[in-house]
């Protein structure tokens, strides 16, 4: 039981790290000009995170639907 919980935690950490890396690369300028996100960056990150979770949920549904009972 503990092993399953540990696997789940590792999966979630990996998912978070991939999400962070992907959206950072896509949305944040390479040269930091301000200490906070500008409006465009903030909007891009919001959209990126939303799409990432949507796709993750879709893949999870497809995988669970294809598993034999």
Describe the structure.
This protein has 69 residues and is mostly helical. It is 78% helix and 0% strand. The protein contains 2 helices and no strands. α1 runs antiparallel to α2 (39-66). 0% of the residues are buried. The model has no long low-confidence stretch (mean pLDDT 90). Belongs to the small Tim family. Heterohexamer. GO terms for molecular function: metal ion binding. It comes from Ceratopteris richardii. It is found in: Mitochondrion inner membrane.
Write the layout of secondary structure elements.
Layout: H1 2-27, H2 39-66
Low-confidence stretches: none
Radius of gyration: 16 Å
Distance between the termini: 21 Å
Q: Please tell me the overall pLDDT.
A: 90
* Order of H and E elements: HH
Seen as an oligomer or otherwise, the chain set is single chain
List the keywords.
single chain, 69 residues, mainly alpha, 2 helices, elongated, disulfide bond, mitochondrion
Briefly summarize what is shown.
With about 70 residues, this protein is mainly alpha-helical.
